[in-house]
Structures are given as C-alpha cells and as structure tokens.
Design goal:
The protein is an alpha/beta fold and 403 residues long. Helix content is 29%, strand content 18%. Strands 13-12-11-14-15-16-17 form a seven-stranded parallel β-sheet, with helices on both faces. The longest helix is centred in the C-terminal third of the chain and has 19 residues. The N terminus is likely disordered.
Length: 403
C-alpha cells in the first residue's frame, strides 16, 4: 500500500512518499512521524498541516499501545487533523508580470491555501502577508521591517534571479528560508541582446514602417537605405560579466564571427575558447559592441559613466540587459546627443517604470524596451516551474536554490 509520510519538525509538516504495510495509521510521538494511506491527490494537501503532532498525541494518549508510538485508524487521524491543524497559507504578492493569466497556479493551490495578488503596494504588503507561511514576490520589497510584522513567515520565494528585494541578513536572523530562480531566462535574454543589436545594425523596423508608408513603391531604384548598415562579422564584442547569460551571449557573438573580449572574475584558463580576458579599459576602448551582464554591486554601480564613456569608440553600441543602475542615465544620454556614442540599447532602466523626464527616453538613438527580455512564455514557464519546485522542496524539508 502507498503511504504519505509527514515529518514534524519545529511545528512544520514535511512529506515524502514511501511504501508501508500496516492495518492502521501509525502516529509516533517520538520520533514524530505520521503515515496516512495515500488515496489520491487530496492527501497532498495534508503536507501543509502545521503544529499538530502535540495536539494529536494528547488526544490519542489514552489509546497509546506502547511507548514508541500511537495508533489510530486513517479516518480517525484525518478527522483529528481537520480539527486541530491550520492549512499552510501561501501568498503571491505580485503575480501579474510572471503570470498574467496564461499559466496555471494549480500546483501551488494543491500545496495550501493560495492567495494571488496581481500587484501589491508597499503599504499593503504586511496586511496581505500577515498570516502567510510562504510568500512569493517578484518586485515587492520584504525587508526587516516587514518581517518583524510577519511572525508566521517561514519562507520567501523570489520570482526572479536577483533577490535584492529581500533583506537577506534579516531573513537569516529570523530563520526564514529565501530562494530564487536562477538561469531560467538565459536563452530569452540572449535573444533580446541580439534583437537590440540587429535593430541598430539593420534597422528592420525602420524600413518596414517606411514601406508601409509607400516609400519603396515610390523609389526610383530597386532598393534604398538612409541608415548605416553594419556587418557584425569581424567586429569586437565586449562583455562585462561572464555568468550564465554572459557566456551564452559570447557563444552567439562568436557564431556571428565576432571577436569576443570579456571583463570577468573567472581565471583565464576557465574561460571558453575564443574569449579573451581583458581589463575594463581595454574592453571599452577596443569594442564595437559592449554588453553589460554583471551583478549590480557597489563596484559596478554606474560602471558606465562620464569617465568610462570617454574610453569608448564614437561608433560603439552599448547594450544593457543587466541592471539599470549599471549606467549613469544622464551621462549616456549626453554621449548620444553629442555623438560620442552611436547607440544605446536597454531593457532595464535605473527606475522602473521610468520617469517621464528620463533623458534617455527622448534620444533617437536610444532603443529601450520595457524590461521584457525575461518575459517570453517559455522563460516564464521555467520561472514558475522552478519557483513551485522550490516551494515543494522547502515543504519536503530539502530547500533548494537558497540564497
């Protein structure tokens, strides 16, 4: 017979599946293991039961048959559970961007009492998460102040790779597990990098619109162009940061026949063939394309600024799909307007959504997308699958992707 086994530890129920043969459900007071006959997916919900071992033991004490454990029927046990336990509460604070409705939350619903909010304002965070055991967040900040007001909180799952929205030291101090979702968007972000680059070098959208307006039909020649058209082969592609995405971008640049240089903390012998490890100064001064893929730290904040921009070629293309504050917005806008930088492509900005007066929004050679590199359905599917797997691993007592 299949059984679902729940391990009680610090008032939390964890489960795994095994094979167990017995005529009745076994409830052990020490150690705290409870086994329930597995009869369908509804029993998976029992994995969310909390703080019940002591209550069940007290109720069943008169029926104790031996010192090592307690016995009751499966029906008795289920009845006692429903009377003495609280289902684990799961709250998604800002689920709309990751899942605007085209993906299911079904698996999370099977793990507990689920509440999904499309968006949550800062002053709504505590109220919405006040009874939650598990909170999932994308951009809603959960700092020490919020954690102090959330005594039930045991787990924070970040629906992203970056986890700067969570006060990690405060979480560790309170024993709250924090996880993220690494590497889910590598292919999609790589694709966006080259979508931006090809927008500048080939201007397909510009010519498509011109032809909608009848320009080609009225042309005296079989073709026309009014922008610079650039071949990538033989050009130098500089990458700042060789993590998962940086390495994938390097592979694609090499496939285009480009020379690749990188600023990285990796040892030179740990870098893939075809990539030259160089200093920031050499990378900026020699590259035709510079793409930013490093983490945002005190050292990388405004790594592209008035000083470093002066090192770049006036024909260079700068791409930022990493973090907005890696660049100084005003300095880049000035370089564009003064002709010291050919183009700036970005999927991230310092403030999101940006202020209307952000100087980059009005620059004709700034090509900015609204933080959508990660948002392909394929990437979002991987994101949710990993986030749900993270929750399941936490419930089972073996947390994964912890930070």
């Amino acid at each position: 017979m299949k059984w679902t086994i729940f391990k009680v530890s610090n008032g939390i129920v964890f489960y795994f599946t095994t094979t167990f043969c017995h005529d009745s459900t076994y409830v052990s007071a020490n150690p705290c293991f409870i086994a329930v006959p597995y009869q369908g997916t509804q029993n998976v919900l029992l994995s969310t039961f909390c703080i019940f071992a002591t209550k069940v033991a007290k109720i069943l004490a008169p029926r104790q048959k031996k010192q090592t454990g307690l016995f009751c029927s499966a029906l008795d046990f289920l009845y006692l559970c429903t009377k003495t336990v609280r289902m684990m509460k799961i709250v998604v604070l800002d689920g709309f961007t990751a899942n605007p409705g085209d993906l299911p939350w079904t698996e999370l619903e099977q793990m507990g009492q689920l509440s999904v909010y499309e968006r949550t304002k800062p002053d709504e965070t505590v109220e919405r998460a006040k009874d939650a055991d598990i909170v999932l967040t994308n951009k809603v900040i959960i700092g020490g102040k919020e954690m102090e007001q959330l005594p039930r909180l045991k787990y924070i799952g970040v629906l992203a790779t970056g986890y700067n929205v969570v006060d990690i030291p405060a979480a560790r101090q309170r024993g709250i597990v924090v996880t993220n979702v690494p590497a889910y968007s590598t292919e999609s972000v790589n694709q966006m990098v080259f979508a931006h680059l090809l927008t500048v070098t080939n201007r397909t959208e510009h010519y498509a619109q011109e032809n909608r307006n009848g320009r080609w039909s009225n042309c005296h020649d079989f073709c026309y162009w009014d922008t610079r058209l650039t071949e990538l082969a033989g050009k130098t592609f500089g990458i700042v940061g060789l993590g998962n995405i940086g390495q994938r971008v390097a592979q694609t640049a090499l496939a285009f026949g480009m020379k690749v240089k990188a600023l990285t903390s990796k040892a030179a012998d740990a870098i893939a063939p075809g990539i030259a490890k160089v200093s920031l100064e050499e990378l900026l001064s020699s590259s035709d394309v510079v793409s930013l893929h490093c983490p945002l730290t005190d050292d990388t904040h405004h790594i592209i600024n008035k000083v470093t921009l002066k090192l770049m070629k006036p024909t260079a293309i700068l791409i930022n799909t990493g973090r907005g504050p890696l660049i100084d917005d005003q300095a880049v806008a000035d370089a564009l307007s003064e002709g010291r930088l050919a183009a700036f492509c970005a999927d991230v900005l310092t403030q999101e959504p940006p202020r209307h007066d952000n100087p980059l929004l009005g620059e004709p050679n700034a090509f900015i997308t609204p933080h959508i590199a990660w948002a392909t359905k394929e990437a979002r599917t991987r994101l949710l699958q990993t986030a749900i797997a993270n929750v399941r691993a936490f419930i089972s007592g073996t947390p994964q992707n912890t930070v």
